[in-house]
Amino acid sequence: MTIHISMKVNGKAVSADVAASTTLVEFIREHLRLTGTHVGCNTAQCGACTVHVDGRAVKSCNMLAAQASGAEVTTIEGLASANGDMHPMQAAFKEHHGLQCGFCTPGMVMSALELKGRFPNATDEQIREALDGNFCRCTGYQNIVKAVKAGLAA
Amino acid sequence: MKADGIGARVTRKEDQRFLTGNGQYTDDITLSHQTYAAFVRSPHAHATINDIDTRAAAAMPGVVAIFTGKDIAATGIGGLPCGWLINNKDGTPMKEPPHHILAVDKARYVGDQVAVVIAETIEQARAAAEAVEVDYGVLPAVADTATASKAKASVHDAAADNVCYVWGHGDAAAVDRAIASAHKVSTLDIVNNRLIPNAIEPRAANAAYDKSSDSYTLYVSNQNPHVERLLMCAFVLGIPEHKVRVVAPDVGGGFGSKIFLYAEETVLVWASKRVGRPIKWTADRMESFLSDAHGRDHVTRVQMAMDGNGKFTGMKVTTTANVGAYLSTFASCVPTILYATLLAGQYATPAIYCEVTAVFTNTSPVDAYRGAGRPEATYVVERIVETAARDMGLDPAEIRRRNFITTFPYATPVGLTYDIGDYHACLEKAVKLADYAGFPARQAEAKARGKLRGIGFSSYIEACGLAPSNVAGALGARAGLFEAGEVRVHPTGKVTVFTGSHSHGQGHETTFAQVVADRLGIPIDDVDIQHGDTGKVLFGMGTYGSRSLAVGGTAIVKAVDKVIAKGKKIAAHLLEAADTDIEFKDGVFRVAGTDKNVPFASVALTAYVPHNYPLDKLEPGLNENAFYDPTNFTYPAGTHICEVEIDPDTGKTEIVKFTAVDDFGNIINPMIVEGQVHGGLAQGIGQALLEGCVYDKESGQLLTATYMDYAMPRADDLPNFTVGTHVTPCTHNPLGVKGCGEAGAIGSPPALINAITHAIGVRDIAMPATPERVWRAIQSRA
Questions:
Q1: SS3 label, residue B356
Q2: Percent share of chain B, pLDDT over 90
Q3: Separation CA B90–CA B598 (nearest Å)
Q4: Mutate to test the interface with B, among A101, A131, A132 (most CBs of B within 10 A)
Q5: What is the pLDDT of residues B225-253, one digit of tens each?
Q6: Are residues A65 and A125 in the same domain?
Q7: Do B715 and A131 touch (CB under 8 A)?
Q8: CATH number assigned to the domain covering B15-20+482-628
Q9: What is the CATH number of domain B31-139+201-252+258-291?
């Protein structure tokens, strides 16, 4: 069964006929070819696929594309400004070496950004708790926490 | 110091693409006329394959092709090779049963590939794979390391007792004498728990065949594309090497698990010619759990003999190591060459003997995982050293001080020669950073709150910079272990460097550029590093064993020095001076003692526009390559101290402080080095507290095959680490570097377990020390 969906992705209107079973991450990666959003588990545990749907951080492997129809979706590709300058949270990850292999990074940044609304002055503990849905196998998280703290303050 | 040169905290060049979603990992690559593969995997740990019926699957929508092990065997394709020959104590070679790229007669572990389905979409491939009917004859499984050699069932007919080899190393008689005459012998039975690497990017491959050139391109998530190509072409598929290009693009973490040549990508390359279209496969997470090579899995008895002063006089180690169902690429050397040779640790123990029995089981292949053999050795040494201190009533720092090696070079009784180190310096710095002196007060304060505090040490050493080829060859390596580098100076003086090392998080694009920029006296932005493509890089042995900078970096330095040497000749011509009078500093060639000079970029331009050039003596161009084969291993070493607080009611362990002081030799980029240490510590702490791969001993089913069952370290499981360094430059490479990628994972598990056993007053606790295990240990003590 196919279903017609339309949404705004990174500010751009998109629409498509997709199989009803298409997940949001499949739609983003395979249909829109926005491959910055990654799949690490497909079971909503690793967080590599985190995007924003109407401002909320969502694991896009566990949401159907159809459920996001009508929504505003932001992916990692949508953060930098038009002239290419990175978002302050992205810049903070670079400055504080909050990434190594880069695979978990887009999801990590999207999760971190959502904290801005919830804990603008987050402590290390709050950041660690808030990021417990995002695995990183490389960094040991210490520099991610540092980066998120700086990114929230920026 | 140059602001972006050696020793500077330079932010990473690669971060821009990773942070903006522009990284390109294997699964991000979709080719024209792409097809998708799904593997049919055995649900049984051990079963005969009586029949495979593909008719229903073949009729399903979108199916392009289905191949079984028999289809592949019929084309005369060999199995996956093992890269290291280990001989038994009696000199006979290890058992090397065939490892078909699709199982032919038998499936030997849950997840073993028995067929591949290729279809227009991944959904169609997976649906059809479900419809392939395999008639299995289920056999008894062998799934327990300790008892495998006594099991009734045999994983391979060629190894009826499931023993791959029994290998001995060291002087057994001398150790027996030391034990017989010892003041005290401490004994410990320990298990190094099996781990699943879990790079967050699952393994993936995309293979394409081009009919017009009769050549193949393989994109694969891999740590060493040249080795992948060599093994696949020369030992398995019989395709001429120059007809295959292997590209390992951005790779989302490896930790050892992406060193190896796996069956999946080999099948894809083979099938791509038959299908005539590109084939992509990306593991789902459960496939990663089932089919990535696992790590560790040792069962060990260790005995340490001491004199009355706590000086070590002899150590005996007996280990059973699980290699899984088949020998993976480096499986045989991990529990032998990379293990027993490290058992001296930082200590002047005069006699050491180690015997290793490697066993086949009906489990996933076991191979190198961050540290590979050295964490297992360190766990043995540092657990028995701490236990020995307790048995002797000595402070754990003091027993180490009494036994440290202090003169260099030092030849250990297990075959290595440490070139340099200062173990006392690292220990004393760690003791200070950890405020060891204040521990009794903190312990008393915790006790007043009803909590148990403990502190544990680990003074590890590792052999990195793998490896001197002649030494490795004499020990059974079937390949060289040098590295290659090429420095291509463009006419404008900008530089592209090609390295056989591969970066999958280590930051080579920055660190290597710092080295080159520093040596050439040019801005780091003028230097780009290329890696991971056999079509671009002349050769390479890849990244593992903390070798990239010490071996790959040195190859680049050698190539840079050749560029400078040629540049001096060109400059001498331009400046009308003798070659020997030219010096090169800060990017400028100068006639020594004069102000006559020519900048690097002008020399480069002259090399490519040779209008005024010594064409009778020199070729035009400025492009040099170099191979570097190290003369020794490097020996990073350090002391880690872990302090824990345990809630006796719940058994939950909190790491209140983790201190790591490491000697990595000279440091190129301290920011990157700290990051490597943090990441290694997280994996070591994961092993000690959280992660455990569990197979059902009867059925051989993997019980920890999802993130619900296998505890990965999350942000709120880990503390902030206190890290420091002490530098003794490596004596035998020009950068004086040793390697830092694995130290954290090597040093930390024994420090943590020593702290827990100290806190609760038990001799041993199994890893991972879960709250349940800790709570039970506390109860057993009462």
A1: strand
A2: 99
A3: 65
A4: A101
A5: 999 999 999 999 999 999 999 999 999 99
A6: no
A7: yes
A8: 3.30.365.10
A9: 3.90.1170.50
